[in-house]
Protein: Hexose transporter
Amino acid sequence: MLSKVAILSVFCLLAGGINYGTALTNLPVQIVTKYASITHFDPDNPTITSLIEVSFCIGAALGSSVSQLITRKMSYPKALMMFFGLAILMNVVQIIPIHWIYLVSCRTVSGFITSGINSIAPLQVASQLSAHHREKAMMMYDFSLNAGVTLAYLIHFGISFDYNYWQFTFLAPILCNITGALVAMTLIKASKAARQIQTLKKFVEDQEEKEPLVHESITVQHSASDYPAPMSLDHNLMNEVQNAVKKPQLSRKQLNRIKYVAFAIGAFQMLTGIDAIVMYSSDIFETEFGSVRAGILGSVLLGVVNLITIVVSAQFVGKIQRRKMLLFGIIGVSVCNISIGCCYLLNINKREIYIMALTVLFQIFYCSGPEPLVFMMFSEMFPEEHKNQLNSLAYSTNWVANILVVFTFQFFFDHLWILYFFYAVCTLGFGLSGVALAPETCGKSLEEIEQQLLQW
Structure:
């Protein structure tokens, strides 16, 4: 049975996932256009539009790199409480329409905070759960993330009837962060109580161990001849004993390998082009079908497909090796990207139908492998001594790749075939090499995974 601390940790993770999904996708191009009409800037300027969309990712990249420093100074629950509180504030201030630079600044800080939550929450969960429960928790996290994305699409669909209510796009992340803050506050109290109980148990056990020794010293008399003469141990032997007790360390070669795995897997997940599709899906489908409503409904369809695929793939996570599922997803999304690129390059008849079908198929492959398993492996495969450093490297790389994908999309909107071919090459290059070198973590405890790394 899960402890109260473990259950609250999972709830923090889920609140962070929904917040991540809604905050990432709650400013589609149509709402940015409405914001532009209020604050008087040109929404057709690709630089401004790209900066507004990518600012969240820039902040997230910074947050991933700094989160390890914050967790050195405070516990995971306290860090989560702080980030959730700041996230509420930043989502509220974004409602105020002042200037596009103000919006970019707020989005950057919001991305920083959201990334901090979603970097720390998986570590908190991994420290509390067994391998079996950890798998389930991370699949629930991926479902919550995609539920957040779908929720943002549905809110946009409602707002599309009257964009004068554009501020409601921030409602979902505000509610998620309030929930997360309340759960984190309870988690802090539960963690403190659990530590006190653990300390009390240890004290009682120590007293029980000492009590028989006291009685024995009273009833039994020993003479000096009963004790053996002191043994003089060789100094070199003492050093060997001390070294044997020390925890084994990763060699430089082993550490460099796991660093590359963190970099490659973190990079390929975003270089599939997933967040460009997620953030610009309504714009892509609007352009292809010639209708704003069709574009929004197309994005809602993608969100629903994501949720269904996550639920189905969850049935196989504990049964099929992580690396095999990742390979399935990598090859699938690469084939879809190449096919979509060919549709744009050759400008085939009924192109919009093929692009819609291939984009849905892309999402199915992505949610079957890269979507759930990359974050799961981040929480599992890093050794305890280097966990914060490697976790920071993985998430920072993930967000930097995200920045590249999201920022360049608007500039290549008239030549998207170039981007889709680029996505396929990066996915195959980083994805295949990262998976080939990664440890298999399915069904293994954190200690077993660390032993696997030491055997490289």
About this structure: The radius of gyration is 26 Å. Residues 229-235, 241-245 have pLDDT under 50 and may be disordered. The domain at 1-206 is CATH 1.20.1250.20 (Growth Hormone; Chain: A;). The chain has two domains: 1-206, 248-456.
